[in-house]
Amino acid sequence: MDLIDGFRVFVAAVESGSFAAAGERLGISGKLASKYLGELEDRLGVRLLQRTTRRLGMTVAGENLYGRLPHWLDELDEIRSDLKESGSGLSGTLRVSAPLTFGELLVQQMLRRFQERHPDLIVDLRLSDSYVDLAAEGIDTAIRIGNLANSALIARKLGETAMVMVATPAYLERCGNPQRPEYLQQHECIRDTNLRTPGGGWPLVDNDEPVRIPVHGHYLVNSARVARDICLEGQGIALCPDYVVGDDIASGQLVQVLKPHQPAPLDIHAVYLEGRRMPRRLRAFLDFLKTEPLRFTKV
Length: 299
Description:
Blueprint: H1 3-16, H2 19-26, H3 30-44, E1 49-51, E2 56-58, H4 60-66, H5 69-83, E3 93-98, H6 100-117, E4 122-127, H7 134-137, E5 141-145, E6 153-161, E7 163-167, H8 169-175, E8 189-192, E9 202-206, E10 209-213, E11 220-221, H9 224-232, E12 237-241, H10 242-251, E13 255-257, E14 266-273, H11 280-291
Parallel strand pairs: 3-4, 3-5, 8-11, 8-12
Antiparallel strand pairs: 1-2, 5-14, 6-14, 7-12, 7-13, 9-10
Helix pairs in contact: 1-2, 1-3, 2-3
Protein name: DNA-binding transcriptional LysR family regulator
InterPro entries: LysR-type_TF_proteobact-type (IPR058163), LysR_HTH_N (IPR000847), LysR_subst-bd (IPR005119), WH-like_DNA-bd_sf (IPR036388), WH_DNA-bd_sf (IPR036390)
Domain HTH lysR-type: 1-59
């Protein structure tokens, strides 16, 4: 067994959770992946993984090794790629983090189009609405929406999304169409808990000044798409990004509420770590994002 092959099996087993899945990722059998890992442990003289019938768990030595290996293997892939002819495609693994709904609706489409241009490239898309530590999790770039915290990350703006209040025509006919932001307190509002605002409430605009309006309702969800689905059932007013409800507004299934008072648009950025040699695949992906605008129905 080549030592590098053993390293690749170890990383794939940690990330996929089993030797069968690791073998599938690497194009070998699960049995051979398990054998390679055992030989790697023998050569290093330490146990890297604890095997149980249900899952694989890292030992302390395994955690230390995993903290270094993914980027080291990526660097090795970059060196090999750079030595190829200039006209060759990209290789290695591009690791991208994105918010759940935005990733499902838009980022996965962009990544598919990018990967089609580079058939040897492996795409690892990780979707989560939680903060992701790029360095700790080996992420090349993260797509983030909203204000960016001060950090060592470099940001490239990709576009912006509007936050819009929407309801079905049937709901507004039944319950009335609010004409002032404070009238929202008399309505059933579907609240997306991912919209974290100081002091709570919905961040709106009144007389060109930002205001926060307390809202109430029987639904709290942590998904803009679920908020939109409940809204489509006529259950209340929702505040959603336009990439989630733009098509519904265009088709007339949803209508905007309090349009003059909608919040300021939120910026969409791709962020990546500063002070580290940028892999060629990441540089190419960021350049690709410049030429591939976000494809969703704006309002």
